[in-house]
Task: structure prediction
Amino acid sequence: MSDYSILSQLSSPDDLKKLPESELPKLCEEIRQKLVEVVSENGGHLASNLGVVELTIALHRSFKAPFDSIVWDVGHQSYTHKMLTGRYSKIETIRTKGGLSGFPKRNESKYDDFNAGHSSTSISAAFGMAKAKQIKGEKSHTVAVIGDASFTGGMALEGFNNAGRYSKKFIVVLNDNKMSIGKNVGAFAKYLTRVRVNPWYLRLKNKIERVLLKIPIVGKWLIKLLAHSTSKVKKIAYRDTIFDNFGFTYFGPINGHDIDELERAFEAAKKLDAPVLIHVVTKKGKGYEYAEKDPKTFHGINRFDIITGESPQSKESFSSVFGEYMCQIASKDRRICAITAAMKPGVGLNDFSIQYKDRFFDVGIAEEHAVTFAAGLACKGMVPVFAVYSTFLQRAYDQLLHDVAMQKLHVVIAIDRAGIVGDDGETHQGVFDVSMLNSLPNTTIYSPCYFDGLKKCLNEAVYHTESLVAVRYPRGGELYRPENYLEASVDFDFYGSKDCDTLIVTYGRLFSNCCEAKKKLIKNGKEVCVLKLNQIKPLPEKAVCDSLVFKDIHFYEEGMMNGSIAYCFNTELTRMGYAGKVNIHAIDDVFVDHQTVSQALKELCFDSESIVKDILEIE
Result:
């Protein structure tokens, strides 16, 4: 175990700038050791952080943060940045309740210029910052650090297109590690491969620019003149990249693990009064053997053993059950297609991608495209199933509305990580999909609690439902299930006697907690019945009608209060003349911070003890 003798002495980027170059290799070693140590205990994003150690050091030695702005795309690679900006002493708290976030947070540090968590936002945000500085007459630089996978996202290309030729003191650092979570896909990934493999003309171009920059007064002017020239000389010796054609001056490819080379590139870019793209090539997982060999597994990982690289054996999960079911139905029905937005392992589609290659589509980090692509498949008689984390589906609201629901096209959305997800925090909580989808006409939503319910709901979604249909399920595996509980209906089930006064209504994972509460309430002499909704939109009319006999109804919903199913249920009760009391327990207009799932559920009063307390106090 390292004593972190250098790292522990750095309280700001100014300290880093004072460090002798001879100590930088040791600093890199210490940072990597600390990253492995912390993530092995807390879980988190390891491979991506290991790959940007030298890049982060070079950025903070070359620029004057926070005077100069550094905007991290996604932000899951910002752990080194946090350690070098005064948060080393708190790094062991990362992703824990009350500790550091696993992503940049403006309220956490003055060095975090923009909150992140989803990809492809950095260029747009940084360009906005650069323009604001330009309007105000400020002379600082703005840097967007974006990965090659994130660069394929539509928003990144929109921002890049807007920023070209129209920005000053604006630098985009393209961190090319050849991966997203898995292997990159698409034409852009192939283009970067060609640039990496055959960079002779780019090296020549960079040499020309470096020579010209040394010419007093006219050097920058000559570079601009040559860049805009259409002469044969330029076409032969100064060949353009796609980035040049967008109006950016291109530097690269540059070794992302050579601090000296990186700093020279940054200094050269700072001298140009024009937008610059610096293409940096890094190795994901660098410095930790297991992460280098398997960067996909170590992209985002739970606790693991540093010596063996092994995590506790994963139990059967909703994601794996979904993947098995998809393979099962695809073997019998050639209409079944599976779509993912660069999340193949996370959503359980590894086996499907191998067994049914012609019907598996990884579209890259492009959720909007994924939905409309699915709509196109549906137009021609296929049955597309788009598997996506709840938090990322938010990015495709317009496509769900215009391209699927409005046209009544049969597209199935398999919403993984629905509800509280825990350590990744507010940017990743899956608590908005229900209120979002609940606003769409021609839409059906299922939310099962157990594996058998997931299969039933998927079967209903694929074969017995029209238009847009979503099946949402939580992260991880099954929770408590009463021994005497049998799921009879795909629409709804009542668990317990209807002869009591109190009804608990819920759906999804919270059914388990409500059943545990029911058991505890019996010990307190209180009998309750639990209504488990599987189909939550449209609400089964009979479920609402059968609820009218209860004097008190408590609705527990692991989602937002605004636009909730609870509000819809209460509205239907009122329409039917219900005269009893309704108590709605949902997330009331707040973002849920990073902590474990169990901690978050307890904080929101969704754990069984809180449910018992609620019901006994109101009674």
Observations:
- The chain has a mean pLDDT of 90.
- The chain has three domains: 65-76+101-288, 318-472, 493-618.
- The CA atoms of residues 230 and 238 lie 10 Å apart.
- The radius of gyration is 27 Å.
